[in-house]
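Running log. JK asked me to keep both predictions on one page so they can be read side by side. First protein, sequence followed by its tokens:
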Amino acid sequence: MNSQPESPRNLPMQDEASSLVKFDAEECSKQLYNLKTKTMKHFFSYVNLCQPSDCRKSVALCLLMFFACLSLRAEVITLENADFEQWNDSIPVAWYGETSNIDSSAVVPSEDAYAGKYACRLIKTQKTHARFSSHAFPLKAGYYQLSYYAKGEGDIRNSYYKGSSYDAYSEYVSLSGNEWKKIDYVFQVKSDLKAVELIFSVASTSKEGILIDALSLQTTEKPDALEAVSMQHLAFATQDGKLLVEAYQPCRLQLYDVLGKLLVQEELQQGSTSFDLEGGVYLMRVNESEMVQKINIH
């Protein structure tokens, strides 16, 4: 007589160390990236389906997370070689655009990847900040969010080239240590452009440089105010013709026009302050620092 299949109740139970879903934040993030950019099987492999009684719950959880990811975006823009898996003569395919001024020898593939096999290592070897850009591609008018992961020692910021001029740079993000950090860069394209180059600007890197990986670009809603930019003494954001400032401590703020004319000089106390400004480009200096922040008022 053939033996009957073993009842699910008699299957060996898992211990706590191999529980149904392991809520490891970094690993979940990596799997969700693979889910969005490659195939669902990477995420399903992350879920342990050994206990049949919980199988349907696990599949439901996966499907819920999958469709939640899709519903959060109006449109995902395809970036060629966004995961830096393809290289040609030590340069990543579809990268090192015309606005790149970083030495080509300072762009290196690294197997210390966030996802996949390779990440891109950027090392500043020149006196000024080093630009690394994508090949040009078209973008329609609208608001966009570039997201990526970075780690290493140094500072990194973003901008884009419009075909004839540069958009304002974001504030530098300082990196330190061996932990991957997710960075979001939100920007506006005011009219349809035939040739846009995404720019990564690095400064003050160590000899090991900065690693970037797992890029994604998507449309986003017009923000009420772009995410506040944090500086040493204050944070600021712009909204409806206003410059909104939150001072962490007393400091001196100076605003200049693009010709260098001083327009505003204010001794700020700790707390919130707002300035009504006409639309245009301004330069902001804090405590007479050599560093100047470019600000766009719309």
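And the second, directly underneath as requested:
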Amino acid sequence: MNIYKHLSVQKASPAIGAYLTGVDLNNINDPAIYEEIRKAVHEFGVVFLHKQPLEDKNFVALGREFGSLESSHPVFGVTDAFKEIQPIVYDPREPITTQEWHTDNTYNEFPSRYTFLRSVDIPPLGGDTLWASNAAIYDELGEPLQKALEQLWARHDLFYRMRETAYLERAGKPEGAAANFLKFRTDHPVVIQHPVTGRKQIFVNRHFTTCIHHMTDQVSFRLLHLLFDMVKLPEFQCRLIWEKDMVVIWDNWATQHYATLDYGKYPRTMTRMVGESALRPSPVDGAKMYDSGVEWQSRGLLRKA
């Protein structure tokens, strides 16, 4: 573990996650503190900070220390005062479709780099969130499978997931609303090299990844679900029991997460920010990549969305 001069760091599990203490996010006057928070996010994948009753302006200031922040989302809205802040509100009367392991927004050509989540109103029990390390999963695969996966591309598609869960119908969206979501699809390497740490890691998730190109649907399905099932193993995970006024920051490319829905009719309110990326996920250095999936659609080797 690296030495941290301005923070106290306690690992959450062997594979992923750390608790950071000794810092008040409402009162940071030394840029070196932000630098150490960024370093911890890259080292551990996700970091947890207790007892941080952040004002919105300081929440946004924290996010901007990681780069530009997104100011829109195709599903979640934004607050009036700060376009960077997205309210994540659970209403028991509304459908929810995020009970799958996923990496945020991988259907974009430039997937979100970081996610910042703040607890506002939480259930008295339940509602834990789990994170898994994409690099730890890759390390477990063994060299023959690692080398094979490093050559492949996968499709990520928001509307495919919406159709699979009948989200638009259950949410009461008007006829024709689907057209607004069709553009949210792209291809990424199945294995990427992290732009900061250099670690190799898988980059597929159950929520948005629909197929691997250059193979039939059956083979693609089996291979993807092998990777999806590995995310469920506790050896690659850490689990957070939320408290009010917690702040969590995670490296979106390096992790997947799962929000448990076990708190019945109790509402839950969080606020979220998402860090933009100026980079596309990159293949492993020196990997002999096949073509991306565009030309394969016409040959029947791309699952239809």
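Observation for JK regarding the second prediction: Residues 217-231 form the longest helix (15 residues).
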